[in-house]
């Protein structure tokens, strides 16, 4: 899309999920202003998707005040969902060839990309990748398929299914995943937040000066000031992309749940601090949590033309690091029975339900799914098999850009027993799509699925 067309597009509201292990951000929200809402296009306000990222790149929690009013405003910015897309279905199919043509047609007409295109016909996950080589005079195609339904905007500013509350897939994220597919072979895609060595040393010095008279709130505040900002790093995808923001938001919100800065929206997931055996804490803690991929081996047909992505998609992992008197971090690798690891296991067990209540977690899974689908296409050269060129998806379409996440403000918990402190430290989100795509097994029934749902649906770019 040209810059001239972009400037005429009406603002809209898309899912802003992002992930980065924040230690839990301070709500320095005085500069926050509500986004202006009009129809068409995507909203690029700093407070969308469960996080607030200001122009300086500082990641914080968004303000709670006015959330419902903002949700209503965002909702009004959406186009009316086509009636045929409203029902929840097990499988909806999206043709990449015809999707590319739909993008080109909108741009050629000088019109904004329709919502149904921006939200990929309401797909909730990528379950299948189906390949159709050219045959009988018909051009080749690659089709994505998965559960789908109509959409709405939730309180986090994410576009989610009307009944499932799970975020729909986004065109922007698909484009980023496809373009990054080749470069993710090896390094993968990740985001992380890391405390600086200087901050660790300052915090350790401050902790030795704290007394009982300071009280836990004063002690925590002094530690936060000593730690200062932690550094955010995004690799594998553009840091300004919605895809990256999704990684940051999910990790950020995971840490908030772990440290008890807000309650979990599902039963059976107490905070890490509620389960921590404070009497057994011998040193200052830096528990590290990160989100990793959790897939079963992919299923494929004998020809490698039909693929199924299986498994929950995301799991939580953890370590408990310790800080010695010199401010040096002692890694907790190998300690499998830590309180942090137990909390991570519980979160993994509750993840699927959590994704239905907090769309940030559903969005990071969508990002993982799209990365795996893109890796399958690249690894097995399926563009060539289908003899398919998609100029919009490959190069010409311009995804929206957002404030780049750079820093997270530290927030500490000072334990009442023993005078120790707890601060969430390094972690993040990490996925290695090519490793996942390389684990596969043959399932004969997938060939029938591909044949029965051949991409012959007239000129429609989606069907069910």
UniProtKB/TrEMBL annotation:
Pfam families: DUF1598. This is DUF1598 domain-containing protein. It comes from Botrimarina colliarenosi.
